[in-house]
Amino acid sequence: MTRHEAYNLMIEMLRSKNLQRHGLAVEAIMRELCRYFQNVHDRKQNETEFNEEEWAIVGLLHDGDYELVEKDPQRHTLVTEEKLRQMGGISERVINGIKAHHEGVKPTRENLMEKAIYATDELAGLITAVALVMPDRKLSSVTVTSIMKKFPQKSFAAGANREQIKTCEKELNIPLEEFVDIALKAMQGISSELGL
Predict the structure, then answer these.
(1) Fewest C-beta in 10 Å: which of 86, 117, 124, 132?
(2) Which pLDDT does position 42 carry in this prediction?
(3) How far is the CA of 77 from the CAs of 59, 60, 102, 136, in angstroms?
(4) Reduced to 3 states, what is the DSSP secondary structure of residue 177?
(5) C-alpha–C-alpha distance, residues 163 and 65, integer Å
(6) Concatenated DSSP letters of 90-158
C-alpha cells in the first residue's frame, strides 16, 4: 500500500476534517519517530523494523474507522483491518500497528512501531489542544514548555490520556520532554495541512 492509497482510504472512511487532520498529525509524528529510531539503531540491520512508509501509514490510518464504530468502540481498528485485508497488499506489521493503539483490541505491544503509535495518538491530541488555546491558534506559537505546563492539568484536554503518553519513557526509552519535542516539530512541519 502506498501513502497515496492510505490517504485516500482515510478520507473515504473519515468525513470529519478534524479526524482527518488528527490522522495527518499522527502520521507526521510516526514518520519522525521512525527517523529518530533509524538514527539510534543500526539502520541496515533494522530495515524491516524501521520502514518509514509503514510507520507513516499506521499513523495515518490508526483512527480510520473511528466514525464507523462510534457506537461500538470495541470494534475500533477492526473495521480498518477488514478493509485493508480486502484490499490486499498490506503487511501484518501495519495491521498490528494500527490495532496496537487500542488496548481493548491488542493489549500487548510487541515492537517499537506498536509502542510508538500507542503513545503518539494521545500526544497529537494534546498538542492540538495547546495550539487551539494560543492567541493566534497556531502551532508556531506552541513550545515544549507550554505543552509541559498543560500536561499535569487534568481538566485541560481531559481526553488526552497522560499515562498513555508517558509510556514513551518505559516503552520507547525517550524522556517525556524529548518525546514532546519530536512530536511538536513533526506537527509544526505540516502546520498548513493541519490548519494550525
Answers:
(1) 86
(2) 66
(3) 12, 12, 7, 34
(4) helix
(5) 24
(6) --HHHHHHHHHT-TTT-----SHHHHHHHHHHHHHHHHHHHHHTSTT--GGG--HHHHHHHTT-TTTTT
Burial of residue 190, with CB atoms counted within 10 A of its CB: 0-12 exposed, 13-18 middle, 19 or more buried? middle
Per-residue pLDDT of the chain (196 residues; tens, 9 = 90+): 999 999 999 999 999 999 999 999 999 999 999 999 988 876 555 667 899 999 999 999 999 999 999 889 999 999 999 999 999 989 999 999 999 999 999 999 999 999 999 999 999 999 999 999 999 999 999 999 999 999 999 999 999 999 999 999 999 999 999 999 999 999 999 999 999 9
**Four-way CATH pick for 3-194: 1.25.40, 1.10.3210, 3.30.470, 3.40.50:** 1.10.3210
How many CB atoms sit inside 10 A of residue 178's CB?
A: 14
What residues does each domain of the chain span? Answer: 3-194
* 184 contacts: CB under 8 Å, gap ≥ 6: 127, 139, 142, 143, 144, 147
